[in-house]
Design a protein that fits this description.
Blueprint: E1 10-15, H1 31-34, E2 38-40, E3 45-50, H2 56-67, E4 93-97, E5 104-109, H3 113-125, H4 147-158, E6 163-168, H5 176-191, E7 195-199, E8 211-217, E9 220-224, H6 230-240, H7 242-249
The protein binds adenosine-5'-triphosphate and magnesium ion.
Adenosine-5'-triphosphate binds at residues 26, 30, 50, 52-58, 85.
Length: 251
């Protein structure tokens, strides 16, 4: 593809392996980082899946931080810090970006979503010339909404299109019905020139068709079709045989 035809913002991420001082310490000691060379992003949606602890959040945080997001989440304007344990992987990452400029963006970490909500409330308490920030989050403090409601109103009201959205387990708070609603919201935003990078365990969200799926398996990133993933096959066989499976598991 001609580079002028690129429709996405983030093309690829590369690890500058020769600059890494040692692969013995976190985050460089993770198998997936030891083996990492580069990652090509899909123009629309890139999924990263894999077992708990395989390194999805570590990779996502490095990509998001290299892009310019606060490592704890939020937009590029968010600048709070509540913990100091971020990995320094981003210092060794290089991103290839297209000539297109993203107008919007958000990095969601489910574990620090509470702090993002607090930061919005705090900014709204300070005197400002503009309208309260929370207007774009559904006019109600995110703390006065349930976890799932607040995340959903963020996606509905705040995500604006022409953006790069990096989401770490966005399904965490969502009912299956809301996860399906999220699929259609992702699609609307994709149609409005947005790009997503999503770490997920949700077989529903993973079904989005205009996507590339990378599965971390034994520390290596493999490209998978949806129906080749464990998420699909395990969920399918569980639901089809839940009685036999629970009998087995509870023996
Ligand atoms: N600050 C840290 N210092 C040392 N080790 C860490 C740190 N943060 C994470 N790890 C380790 O790195 C590994 C990968 O963690 P990471 O959070 O990236 O996994 P993940 O794939 O996102 O898992 P999950 O699906 O449970 O969210 C884990 O084994 C974890 O214990
Ligand atoms: Mg994680």
């Amino acid at each position: 593809m001609n580079f002028l035809e690129n429709t996405h913002y983030l093309l690829s991420a590369k690890l500058l392996r020769e600059k890494v001082p040692s692969f013995e310490e976190y985050p460089f000691n993770l198998e997936v980082v030891r083996n990492f060379e580069s990652l090509e992003f899909h123009p629309k949606v890139t999924f990263i899946i894999g077992e708990n602890g395989s390194g999805k959040s570590t990779l996502l945080e490095a990509i998001a931080t290299t892009w310019g997001f606060n490592p704890e989440g939020g937009t590029k304007n968010f600048n709070f810090a509540t913990r100091s344990s971020h990995s320094n992987l981003h210092e060794y990452f290089r991103l290839a970006k297209s000539f297109r400029k993203a107008k919007d963006g958000f990095f969601l970490r489910s574990e620090s979503f509470y702090n993002v909500a607090s930061n919005i409330d705090q900014l709204d308490e300070e005197p400002a010339f503009g309208p309260p920030i929370k207007n774009s989050y559904g006019r109600k403090s995110l703390h006065q909404q349930s976890h799932g409601e607040s995340f959903f109103s963020l996606m509905t009201h705040r995500f604006d299109g022409k953006g790069l959205y990096i989401l770490d387990e966005p399904e965490a708070a969502l009912s299956p019905t809301r996860q399906m609603a999220m699929l259609s919201r992702i699609h609307q935003l994709v149609e409005q020139d947005s790009q997503f990078i999503i770490a997920t365990h949700s077989p529903i969200i993973l079904a989005y068709p205009q996507a590339r799926i990378y599965e971390i398996k034994n520390g290596i990133l493999h490209t998978r079709e949806y129906t080749q993933t464990e998420h699909y096959s395990i969920t399918k066989s569980f639901l089809n045989h839940y009685q036999e499976m629970t009998n087995q598991l509870l023996k």
